[in-house]
Amino acid sequence: MQTSAVFSNRWLPYALLAPQLIITGVFFFWPAFEAVKQSLYMSDPFGLSMQFVGTENFEYLFKDSYYRTSFVTTAIFSTLVTISSLSVALLLAVLVDRVIKGSGAYRSILIWPYAIAPAVAGVLWLFMFNPSIGVASYYLKLMGYEWNHVLNGGEAMFLVVVASAWKQISYNFLFFLAGLQSIPGSVIEAAAIDGAGFWKRFRTIVFPLLSPTTFFLVVVNIIYAFFETFAVIHTITSGGPQQSTTILVYKVFTDGFVSQDLGSSAAQSVVLLILVGLLTIVQFKYIERKVHY
Amino acid sequence: MSNMVQKQGVGIFFSHMLILFGIAIILFPIYLAFIASTHEQAALVTPPMPLLPGDHFWTNYKEALGSGVNVPVWTMLINSMVMSLGITIGKIVISLLSAFAIVYFNFRFKMFFFWMIFLTLMLPVEVRIVPTYQVIANFGMLNSYSGLIFPLIASATATFLFRQVFMSMPNELVEAAKVDGAGPMKFFWDILIPISKTNIAALFVILFIYGWNQYLWPLLITTEPEMNTIVMGIKQMFPSGDDIPNWPVIMATAILAMLPPILVIIFMQRLFVKGLVDSEK
Amino acid sequence: MSFVTLKNVNKQYKKGIDVIKDISLEIEAGEFLVIVGPSGCGKSTLLRMVAGLEQTTGGQIFIDGRDVTKEEPGERDIAMVFQNYALYPHMTVYDNMAYGLRNRKIPEDEIKRRVEDASKSLQIGEFLPRKPSQLSGGQRQRVAMGRAIVRDPKVFLFDEPLSNLDAKLRTQMRVEIKRLQRELGTTSIYVTHDQVEAMTLADRLIVLNQGNIDQIGSPKALYAKPKTVFVAGFLGSPSMNFIDSAGISRFSDDLTQRMASYTNTNAGKRIQIGVRPEQLFVMNEASEYDLMLDAEVLAVEDLGADCLIYIELNSDKSQLIWRAVAGTEVEIGEKIQLAAKSESLHLFDSETGERIEI
Fold first, then answer.
1. The pTM is what?
2. Given CB 3.0 to 4.6 Å as the disulfide criterion, which of A235, B144, C249, C283 pairs with A122?
3. CATH class as words, domain C4-226
């Protein structure tokens, strides 16, 4: 901002910032700081005393096979959610962009899942796939397949992936549609004159031009899969069966609030903190570059 | 995109069919939940459940709202409304003031404050649950509205957004206001806020939905069912052990939980889409 | 003390760059002062310091006897018309004009009177209930002026207000602005890079060159007797031709003598001669002249009302412009001889660019 576009009051800016600083300080930085601090301590079983143990919590964490498994589970989960959600969203966006007529109405309807809480999404899909009364399980049984995600880890993973991806389709769809609509029509026309059919045009021109949007959505979806899907998992599988759907953030919860292992939970939080931090930096750096185009 | 390139009729028809098919699949779970909420338990518990609405609409919803399973859904709706509005309005007000301070004033430590606020973009609440819980507990704010609201307005995402919005305003507007004798707060109220109306409205939608759909945090700090929000309360309606859940009431609750955010989106749709896509730029 | 006074005003940016170097200025009440210069010369900065939108690094500014150097823009009783109009997009035209008055607690009926008077003057009465986005550029500019007029301030400040308008509109508005200022009698400071605006609007004109005042005076005076090469080349379109004395084929005896006496008393100095395109004429045997040029025609632009003929001197190949009478017939490549009289010539020191009188 140019100097002249600025006001010269001395204390006013501090007064304006105060609410934000107080709330952010108390409810963000203090807990974040405590999380780091706690990750360096181990508490006794009764929670009465704490002992400084340095990086021991972290070392123990990475030696823990359950934790390493959780890493793998999270990786698989987020990859599946991202790919499936993005593919369906892209397909729908391409179709809706192509038809134009009615695209407004289609868009209005396709937005709905965005408004639905992940927790509610979990309940909806749980209801459909309930092993005893669910509509989907019923028809699967008719086809000879016994569905029971309570016992079968793979099925549990499938269910939480579908529920999570389903919810994200709207968001991805909106961005893909906007991205498609910002591609200049003249570029497409030139390709058509050059003899490229619809799918060829898509592969060689549209998709590459869409790559900033795609990249952005990949990062956003990964972050979504890491964190906001807690509700889906908690509602459908509670991390089971046998922790086959325990993603990292879920483990932070169970270790911290169920097992009361504060040190380990804090250490896990710190690891997640670093992961998210990296992802956000990547995203922000990329967006900054995009803005400069 | 492909507006100019002519497509044959069959291709378009096929596309429309595919889209409608996609929409049907996407809306099916919602449809099913609604159907379930209009039947009695007996019909739902013996598969296959009916695929057309039943006649228990009023009974089920009355039961849900009136008594629910562990707490009346009506109470949960109010809790959710207070929480989301609190988060939405709180966050918007705070961030408007902070963004205004950062963009329109020069003061010592300005850069420091800016980076501090920027850092908060990186941590969703899920990562700091344990210590935040302790802080809330220490303040005696467990099981209260303030406990529900404050930690969720602590991150500065909205501040950042408004900063971008304010920075894109022409400098001359402030200069003209100064020449017109307006001080900073007059400028803020008479000019800056009215011009930012659409951004504020779009953010309102996004934050309201974000607040309404919160799950983990309300789960942790509510200790009495009376304080449950509707989104986190649904899971609580499932019995532990082998008892059969009260499906009609649960499904009715699910529908009620979905309704306010969907209504908000429908009514603010154009605003919201523009705001969502613009805000990520 | 005159109505607006600047005393030793200077402005320095952080890295030791002087944008405005020690300017002192006295502006009379009711005067229309134009500050003109190329981009980056500091004219806008100077204006904004008078407005209070920029701080001075040194010096003082007085308006109507009061030292306003440290005062906020809102306290200086000035009104400003911005290049990009700076209208409040969410307010109606009426509210745009009323805003400054409301902030000063003027009663509503007085506001109404002033707004209606000003809008009648500017012919924007029908736009009062509309928003700026519904108006064209020219209409918005009038509203911006209306906003300044209703304030009835001590000084009007104009920051290149016509730059964003098309040529025809610009001419129209120029006349409007001059008329209004005469009517209202408000002291005005007007900044522009367009020398036509400068010449037609100013009572007095300042040519600003890299933060310094090169010359101040009436437009006529600056045009007829520019003090520096910069001023000479800036005013007038097409601009003045500059010829090194060596490039001239022949001088009259009188001029030769005068130039010699100058170079004798000022050893080592060279003279640069300026002559405006319209002051050149075709040599013929009988004409009286003081200098003569041998040149070749490069290009001809027939503008209808007159002709611009581009020539190249045989002597040092420098290129000049000759503004000839309409219908002048020359061929490209044709060799011609042009002459000029002593009273049309402007002599400058080649090194310093300062005017020489000999």
1. 0.83
2. A235
3. alpha beta
